[in-house]
Amino acid sequence: YNQRVMSSVVASMEEHILNQVLERIEQVRQRRGTELMRCEKIFASIDCDEVLLAIAVRKEELHQKRIMYNQKQEQDLLGQGVDAEHARIALQLTSYHGLYSSYKSMNLLGAALSQYRSQEDIKMYGNEDYLIPEVYQVMKHTFYSWTTLYAIQLQNQKNYSHEDAISLAQKAAHDKLTHNLQKPDTIN
Fold first, then answer.
1. Does the structure show a pLDDT above 60 at 187?
2. Which of 35, 50, 146, 161 has the highest CB neighbour number within 10 Å of its CB?
């Protein structure tokens, strides 16, 4: 492989693959003289320092893209009238591999704080506020604000276990999505 091919290969890699290659290169450097590993075959004719430089450049590109993407997600939330501190907490809790999601964050905030809840959800599940990190522990399994509120309501009003409440909320979401049913009514 030549430098251009190597650069092309590295430029197409995602961060988790780059990290694996870095680990392999470090293993190769520590185990000189052993059987060639897969990454050695790919990069055998190239100086490891060139590969490391290409990886560093790619990781920086990905880092900058992540920063820009995350700033956009934060601005989306702030543009919806979300308090900056609430946005920060929700974005950090719902991030996945360092990427923010204004959609998931707004679902979390809608479940936790009545000021971000839809009128429909207030009507069905009330306007009680909950601690954001505690709601997140439920929402990791229920995803939508209404399913999260439903699970919390099952726990608080019917004394369901955390697991049982989540299971019932997941079933309600599945039923609604597959059969276009109404959201479950409040628990009476």
1. no
2. 146
Question: Does residue 18 contact residue 58 with C-beta atoms inside 8 Å?
Answer: yes
What amino acid is encoded at 147 in this protein?
Answer: T
Residue 95 φ/ψ, nearest 5 degrees: -65, 150
**CA–CA gap between residue 64 and residue 109 (Å, rounded):** 27
Task: Say how far apart CA 142 and CA 146 lie, in whole Å.
Answer: 9
pLDDT at 85: 97
> In this structure, are residues 139 and 156 in contact, taking their beta carbons and an 8 Å threshold?
no
Amino acid identity at 87: A
* Residues facing residue 96 across a β-bridge: 99
Which helix (H) or strand (E) segment holds residue 184: the answer is none
User: What confidence tens digit (pLDDT) does each residue in 76-109 have?
Assistant: 999 999 999 999 999 999 999 899 999 999 999 9
Q: Which two tokens stand for residue 85?
A: 């501190």
CA atoms within 13 A on the CB side of 66: 14
**How far, in Å, CA of 139 to CA of 151, rounded?**
9
**Do the Cβ atoms of 114 and 129 come closer than 8 Å?**
yes
Q: Is the Cβ–Cβ distance between 39 and 24 less than 8 Å?
A: yes
